[in-house]
Amino acid sequence: MIADGTTNDGNLTNGTVLADGQATAVDRNVCKTVDCTIQSSSVTSGKVILCTVENETNTNDIHAQIQVKYHIA
């Protein structure tokens, strides 16, 4: 992510999608697990892993638990 104090701050165009997935038909009574598709398993040293979750149907709070498995060689 670019953080140079200009309008480029927050620019993720040089980023890499590591994994993505989608939950369907989820309501507040369901604990949903999503298996993500790995797009890239390589993260360069000094980089940040960012995860986003979106509520597309209303303004209710959402809670997410993210597990990042890693191996340091």
Rg (CA only) = 15 Å
Percent helix? under 10%
The order of strands across the largest sheet is: 1-2
Strand content: 5-15%
Q: Choose one word for the global shape.
A: extended
How many strand segments?
A: 2
Mean pLDDT reading:
77
Explained architecture:
The protein has 73 residues and is largely without helices or strands. The chain has one domain. The protein is built from no helices and 2 strands. The chain has strands at 19-20, 37-38. A two-stranded antiparallel sheet has the order 1-2. It is extended, with a radius of gyration of 15 Å. The two termini are 24 Å apart. The model has no long low-confidence stretch (mean pLDDT 77).
Search tags:
73 residues; little secondary structure; two-stranded antiparallel ribbon
